[in-house]
């Protein structure tokens, strides 16, 4: 009698199975059918307001993913709008997720995470708000993987495969807490890890420029946004500027994300603040330090959210509150090393 999993799939060749929850996986044929039925390949004006984008494409209980890396090129404007609209029970891909995940968990929007690079602020320290939610049981770490593991989950989804084979997770505790399986390689007879595909319900990515259709260019490392854009069911692009299509066509090799995978385009200058936008503005270390200080307590977390999210009506008002043009001019000079480095979060 053959061994099968919960779905009746034969498991006779499985040597090891991680105990993490399998999040965001679909049969690739079902995923393709969903795209055929729900996505249009027609070129159309996708410009909408940030309120409309979040209301239409992010729903309670969705599996979401944020583009960029760490504190770099993160769509904080979408993060604030998710909090403002009080989305709940979201599941988040914890891939290079730091400030974005910390705020979403701290605000009570995300209550389940598959963690790869999460719950910290890199050199600035750990994430008091989201760690407190996990320790109290209000947020669950359902599975673990590595940053490469997440990129390959997205790659498998993009390629229409159910998994990507890899060797990097073998022999690690991370694999034991992941949703991967290990089988015997039919060519070598050696163990090989199978990293399952992922299909986020909605991804949001901040870019340097795009046209009204969503053809997007990134002036820096695209990290895993190439794969994420193509496996996500819905994709919201926030952009520093919307440019004419002719400018995009002039240098087509720079278009990382094509229009046919984009559902919404939102123009949000400085939309990554307080995170960095390479070549445009640096991290707002004073603002991040304020969050890290206040989020040490639940009362402080709510104080921050009341001031910077619920206390303003738009991202433009938020930008005025954090210093407006004067502050962004400073952060631009800092990006080009024309101002000294500061570390206000250092105690």
Q: Helix/strand/pairing class, anyone?
A: alpha/beta
In DSSP terms (H or I, runs of 4 or more residues), the helix count works out at 13
How far is the N terminus from the C terminus? 62 Å
Q: Roughly what fraction of the amino acids lie in strands?
A: 15-25%
Total beta strands? 13
Rg computed from alpha carbons, rounded to a whole number of angstroms: 20 Å
Average pLDDT level: 94
**How would you spell out the order of helices and strands?**
EHHEHEHEHEHEHEEEEHEHEEHHHH
Helix content: 25-40%
Detail the poorly predicted runs. Answer: none
The shape, in one word, is: globular
Largest sheet: 9 strands, mixed
Any overview of this molecule?
- The protein is α/β, with parallel strands linked by helices and 347 residues long.
- 33% of the residues lie in helices and 19% in strands.
- It contains 13 helices and 13 strands.
- The chain has helices at 28-38, 50-57, 76-84, 99-106, 128-135, 147-159, 173-176, 225-231, 245-250, 285-294, 298-310, 315-321, 324-335; strands at residues 14-17, 63-66, 90-94, 110-115, 140-144, 163-166, 181-184, 191-196, 202-210, 216-217, 234-242, 255-257, 264-267.
- Helix 3 (76-84) links the parallel strand 2 (63-66) and strand 3.
- Helix 6 packs across helix 8 (225-231) and helix 10 (285-294) crosses helix 11.
- The model has no long low-confidence stretch (mean pLDDT 94).
Q: Which helices and strands occur, and which strands form pairs?
A:
Elements: E1 14-17, H1 28-38, H2 50-57, E2 63-66, H3 76-84, E3 90-94, H4 99-106, E4 110-115, H5 128-135, E5 140-144, H6 147-159, E6 163-166, H7 173-176, E7 181-184, E8 191-196, E9 202-210, E10 216-217, H8 225-231, E11 234-242, H9 245-250, E12 255-257, E13 264-267, H10 285-294, H11 298-310, H12 315-321, H13 324-335
Parallel strand pairs: 2-3, 2-9, 3-4, 4-5, 9-11, 11-13
Antiparallel strand pairs: 1-7, 6-8, 7-8, 9-10, 10-12
